[in-house]
Specification:
Largest sheet: 6 strands, antiparallel
Order of helices and strands: EHEEEEHHHEEEEHEEEHHEHEHEHEHEH
Strand order of the largest sheet: 2-3-1-9-8-10
Shape: elongated
Structural class: alpha+beta
Number of helices: 12
């Protein structure tokens, strides 16, 4: 499960709808935090909180984890802060903001983020407007929009559209924007290697959401379609039809079918969730079954078995992403991890293929995914899939930039 955040600079009577923005992020999970002033919201693995600090009220939403949360929490408590047991990342950060010695809410927020280890995207509602930030590695996306004097910030561009705003652009990795009567862009953190999370971009986005950090502009559909084309080129199989396991994998199947020159069976014909395909679609056909990312072995076995019961003569499974070999060390993907900590990708693929009883099972290698996506995503973080992990663990305050923090 991945998280998402959204915020509006106005109140409930303002143009735009925070409720609609949250609903557009519903594929990332249910609402997990909501400010009483209805200015920020979090879904899925993200969190939100609000409080009254030394410089006035602040509502804050954080998509990320604080890797040093326990140590930071103990320090804050020793300095007089109150933190409930199991406090969310947003609550810990908000307490760190309150304890910060900065002269303004913006100073205090930046000072608190200097104390945080992890990868994050943050938006805070303060009396003068919104403050939005991405960590220097750009692990998580963040977009901003505006209409009729109201600013909005959200994890995906499609959430801004759903809220009635015009999409302006995505924030750059390490960028902070102050959105009020005017807009200011500041780079308050030391610059490092930009390593956006590949699973975030491939699995997390809605099909109509724009992809930032990439080479050429595309949306979630175009990104997955492109990966399906590469699957057909480099991991083809003798097949007569392509079946996409679910709606999210539909564009992958469409890309595979287009490049292979064979028909795509619509997802509804597969009879999900019973995994029984229409016999007229696959009877005596060689089938390629496309999936997007991770899938429990029992579910995959059910899908392959359903295709065989419908009369498929062979079933070849093709995945758009490599096997996940560990839980995300930076907390981007909160999906529970039950695999062996020392399993290799080939060993896990063999195990999965054995359970599913597919004729063959193959996936794009991490290098193939990075090569096809291009741009900054060509160096994207694939630490959970056996690649190099992004260096999103800590930030050091460069004293030469302290003058930039004297903002209202």
């Amino acid at each position: 499960m991945m998280g998402g955040i959204a915020a509006l600079s106005g109140d409930r009577e303002s143009p735009g709808s925070l409720e609609a923005m949250a609903a557009a992020l519903g594929h990332r999970g249910v609402i997990s935090g909501w400010s009483r002033g209805a200015r920020v919201v979090s879904v899925g693995g993200a969190s939100a909180d609000e409080g009254l600090g030394r410089s006035g009220p602040m509502s804050l939403a954080l998509d990320g984890v604080i890797l040093n949360s326990e140590a930071l929490g103990k320090e804050l408590v020793s300095r007089g802060a109150w933190l409930p047991s199991g406090a969310s990342a947003a609550t810990v950060l908000l307490q760190a903001v309150t304890a910060s010695s900065g002269a303004t809410p913006v100073n205090q927020l930046i000072g608190a983020l200097y104390r945080v280890m992890g990868g994050w995207a943050v938006v805070a509602a303060i009396p003068s407007g919104l403050v939005a930030l991405r960590d220097p590695s750009g692990l998580r996306p963040l977009w901003m929009g505006r209409r009729d004097g109201v600013w909005g910030v959200a994890t995906e561009s499609s959430a801004l559209v759903a809220g009635g705003l015009d999409v302006l652009r995505g924030l750059a990795p390490g960028e902070m924007v102050l959105l009020g009567n005017s807009v200011e862009s500041v780079r308050p953190f030391s610059r490092g290697a930009v390593r956006p999370c590949l699973r975030e971009r491939v699995v997390g986005l809605r099909l109509d959401a724009r992809v930032d950090d990439g080479g050429s502009p595309m949306d979630g559909y175009g990104l997955r379609h492109a990966l399906g084309e590469v699957l057909a080129e480099r991991h083809g199989a003798p097949a007569d039809v392509v079946v996409a396991l679910d709606g999210a994998a539909g564009p992958v199947g469409a890309g595979f079918a287009a490049r292979a020159g064979i028909p795509l069976v619509p997802a509804w014909a597969c009879g999900a969730p019973s995994w029984v395909a229409s016999p007229s679609a696959v009877l005596e056909k060689r089938v390629v079954l496309t999936i997007l990312g991770d899938l429990p072995a029992t579910d995959l076995a059910g899908a392959v078995g359903g295709l065989r019961r419908a009369g498929a003569s062979s079933v070849h499974v093709r995945r758009a992403l490599p096997m996940r070999l560990s839980a995300c060390p930076l907390g981007v993907d909160r999906t529970p991890w039950h695999g062996s900590p020392d399993a290799s990708s080939s060993a896990r693929a063999a195990e999965l293929g054995l359970v599913a009883r597919a004729d063959s099972i193959s996936a794009l290698a991490l290098e193939e995914v990075q090569e096809r996506l291009g741009g900054v995503l060509a160096e994207g973080c694939g630490g959970c899939m056996g690649g190099q992990l992004a260096e999103g663990a800590g930030i050091s305050p460069p004293t030469s930039q302290l003058a930039l923090f004297q903002l209202g």
